[in-house]
Amino acid sequence: MQKTKILYVEDELFLGKIVKESLESRNYEVSMIADGKLAVAAFSQFKPDICVLDIMLPNVDGYTLAEEIRKLDPAQPIIFLTAKTQTEDAVKGFQVGGNDYIRKPFSLEELIVRIQNLLQLTQSKAAAQTSPAAPFTIGQFEFLPHRYELRRGEQSRKLSHRETELLTILCENRNFTVARKDILMRVWGDDSFFNSRNLDVYITKLRDYLREDPGVQINTIKGVGYHFLTEG
Fold first, then answer.
1. Same domain, 169 and 55
2. Which residues are CB-neighbours of 55 under 8 A, at least 6 positions away?
3. Using CA atoms, how far apart are residues 69 and 188, in angstroms rounded to an integer?
4. Same domain assignment for residues 120 and 141
5. Which of 26, 33, 60, 217 is spaced 20 to 30 Å from 41 by Cα?
6. What is the reported pLDDT for 131?
7. How many folded domains does the chain comprise?
């Protein structure tokens, strides 16, 4: 059976050695990198199933590293590790493409459970997306989920993986109200406070992208979710 491959970027060498050896003892294949500037090349060469990134790294921080990885693979699962405790730090981690966030100190069992859950969620999404999703017409826009693209006339905007997932859910439920919790569980696999804050950010982004067509509206139904109104 092929081992799950983990790219682990951590500059605390003592901690990194313990975590790496512990993961390997659980039959994971781990590539550990201690310098952020070396991690993108390691990602391309190692081709991991999941990335576990410390945020405070020498030369290139974890946020920047996640953005670079997202450019290479929009669907790559990413878990952040950090000693930071501010809510804003967690939100920023999600904004740049993180799927999960673990604060130090953490137990190895917690890390393994997070890795397994995120991999299962990612594999379920991949299975559901085996066939390219059909394009959606949204008022004056054409949305192509399989291309991560939103078009209006000759103008085209590339969307992130998370933006594509969220807009797909809204399109599938157009002119109906979709529960906030249902969105969080489908896109993030968790309805935690941090993910909820992140959803607010992405809804604001989508509203901005679609603002040129007044017939398209993402209305907030307080305490319930969102109602996606479109004439298309």
1. no
2. 61, 62, 63, 80, 81, 82, 84, 89, 93
3. 18
4. no
5. 26
6. 54
7. 2
Is the domain of 113 the same as that of 141? no
Q: Are residues 98 and 10 in the same domain?
A: yes
For the stretch 213-219, contacts whose Cβ atoms lie closer than 8 Å and that sit 24 or more positions apart, written own/partner, are 213/138, 213/139, 213/140, 213/141, 213/152, 215/139, 215/140, 216/138, 216/139, 216/140, 216/141, 218/170
DSSP for 150-179, please give it: EEETTEEEE--HHHHHHHHHHHHTTTSEEE
The amino acid occupying position 1 is: M
Assign 45 to helix, strand or coil: helix
Token readout for 125 is 């999404």
- Using one digit for the tens of pLDDT, what is the confidence trace for 69-121? 988 988 899 999 987 666 667 777 777 878 888 888 889 999 999 898 888 87
pLDDT tens profile 117-136: 888 877 766 655 555 568 99
Of 85, 108, 128, the last residue of a domain is 128
Say if residue 87 is in the same domain as residue 149: no
What mean pLDDT value characterizes the chain? 88
Residue 86 burial by Cβ neighbours in a 10 Å radius (0-12, 13-18, 19+)? exposed
Six-digit token string for 137: 């017409």
CB neighbours of 95 closer than 8 A, spacing ≥ 6? 198, 201
**Model pTM score:** 0.59
The CATH number of whichever domain residue 201 belongs to comes to: 1.10.10.10
Is 63 found in the same domain as 37? Answer: yes
Same domain, 161 and 54: no
The length of the chain is 232
Q: Which two tokens stand for residue 76?
A: 């790559």
Of 95, 128, 161, the domain-final residue: 128
